[in-house]
Amino acid sequence: MTGVGFNAARALIVRLVRQEDLNFLLTNRIPRQLVTRFMGWFSRIEHPWVRDASIAVWKLFTDLDLAEARKPQSAFRSLHDCFTRELKAGARTVDADPAILTSPCDGIVGACGRIEGQRIFQAKGFPYTLPELFCDEDLAKRYADGTYVTLRLTSAMYHRFHAPHDCRVEQVTYVSGDTWNVNPIALKRVEKLFCKNERALIRCRLEVGRHRITLVPVAAVLVAGIRLHFIDVLLHLRYKGPQVLTCDARLAKGDEMGWFEHGSTIIVFAPAGFALCPGIETGARVRMGMPLLFLP
Question: Most buried of 57, 88, 100, 235, CB within 10 angstroms?
């Protein structure tokens, strides 16, 4: 196939997959957990032919760019190794201002802004509540009338996430759940989607002002697990929850916290007094280390 023919075929496939009804059927009306577990196994096959063929298919559907990766494609042991790739030194700049809470990851801003009491939105017209997401009434009260930012990681993005400020991670709660797709198409169709999916609640206390924030990585279809460096457990679908995992990990701003096995979502919660930084609005693209919220 010529280059022109390949590009035309790729454009046709992408248009079909982006058609909302078809996209929803292909990524949700399937045995989600079975497919997710299979992907977790398949992505770890360490064979150059499997790796290269898988990455080639991946590039058909996304704008995957490995130019910032710390090692070349030929050095990845598997598709999983490519998913969870590290970046070259200096590929991201972390805003050092202590008055700024930075983005923990690369992502696209979904819903964001002020929490209405304990109610927030995953998409326009689709609310959910903090107790439903946290499964913890006391934690929910802490963020009433606070501020939140939903950050969606696409499959082609850098999948590691980092400390948004100098902080101490005091506790992690793992909540077992489903694996609905978390793209905008699904968020407009599945009510309280984030409250149904597998997720972790990472409670942090900032060194500045002793403010408390909570990061909520939410898994999705094809995401085989969430890895956190400060807990010696791979959080995945077979790990029953909710489970409270105590820890005491000190992290400097920009330190790596962990990674997703694929793309997904991180929701950042801050108490009343925090405010969105300029440019943080629905649809904005951010990179890890960019300003996200002003501290009180």
Answer: 235
158 DSSP assignment: -
Catalytic position from the list 80, 162, 211, 236: 162
In this structure, what DSSP letter does residue 85 have? Answer: P
The confidence band for 187, taking pLDDT boundaries of 50, 70 and 90, is confident
Confidence class of residue 3 from pLDDT cuts 50, 70 and 90?
Answer: low
The CA-atom distances, in angstroms, between 173 and each of 148, 234, 293 are 19, 13, 24
Q: Is 264 among the residues known to form the active site?
A: yes
Q: Where are the domains of the chain?
A: 3-83, 100-294
Return the pLDDT at 22.
Answer: 43
Catalytic: which of 54, 80, 106, 159?
106
How many other C-beta atoms lie within 10 A of the C-beta of residue 125?
Answer: 8
E strands within the chain? 100-102, 107-114, 119-123, 126-129, 147-152, 160-162, 167-175, 199-206, 212-218, 226-228, 234-235, 243-251, 256-260, 265-270, 275-276, 285-286, 291-294
